[in-house]
Specification:
about 230 residues, 7 helices
């Protein structure tokens, strides 16, 4: 067992498994509910970016509150994983944890910087949340090495692959459309309307990206079950 920085959270194995479920269920439910409410209220266009659900009214309230709680849960989860699981490459495991916590922090921030009123900080925090999540998933998988379970590794590889492809397609598709639009004098909605041709590809890619990241979060449950079983043998 390698030494770790900081203090371990006072959680039992069962509480850690509940935290694992909450790390992906809270943001997933939040996104689905907020997007459904936004769709029922009359969206700008279909498909639309997830962040477009951070609008005024109930959809925006669900989006902000849910992702604030979800981001805080994910930060706690990343720290719990760091102190609970053994990694083949401990220094890389610590770096991956820091990146995961940074991505989680930006999940909180992006929920407060809506794209309608705070477009620049929204883009920055969204890229750090998404991009940081992809990097975290990759580094965490490498850091665990032979300590990873077969099922956890397979699910992580699937999630990382989805997230990486979704991220690249989203950025390329949206940027290609955005480059053809002169945003001078436009508000965010007007700009998005002009770039909708690219959003038709970028928005579904974003859904795949987020789904992939949720799979990565869920994948560590297998290692937590292993850690629980090992503790019961001694």
């Amino acid at each position: 067992m390698h030494p770790r920085y900081g203090r371990r959270l006072p959680l039992t194995h069962d509480q850690g498994l509940l935290l694992a479920r909450a790390s992906y269920l809270v943001p997933t439910i939040t996104i689905l509910v907020a997007m459904s409410l936004h769709a029922l209220a009359g969206p700008r266009a279909v498909p639309f970016f997830i962040s477009e659900a951070d609008f005024t009214g109930l959809d925006g309230a669900v989006f902000t509150l849910g992702l604030t709680v979800g981001g805080a849960v994910q930060m706690t989860y990343a720290w719990h994983l760091y102190h609970t699981l053994e990694a083949q490459r401990p220094h890389l495991w610590f770096l991956a944890t820091l990146i995961g916590m940074l991505a989680s922090l930006n999940t909180i921030l992006v929920s407060h910087y809506d794209m309608y009123e705070h477009i620049n900080p929204h883009i920055l925090t969204a890229m750090l949340a998404f991009g940081g999540g992809v990097v975290w998933a990759f580094l965490a998988s490498v850091a665990l090495g032979h300590q990873a379970t077969a099922k956890g590794k397979r699910l992580r590889n699937l999630g990382f692959g989805m997230a990486a492809v979704g991220f690249v397609v989203m950025v390329v598709a949206f940027q290609s459309a955005a480059n053809e639009v002169d945003p001078t004098g436009m508000n965010t909605v007007e700009f998005l309307n002009q770039a909708q041709q690219g959003i038709r590809i970028a928005a579904p890619a974003e859904y795949i990206l987020v789904g992939g990241l949720m799979l990565c979060l869920a994948s560590f449950s297998y290692e937590l079950y292993d850690a629980k079983a090992a503790s019961q043998r001694y």
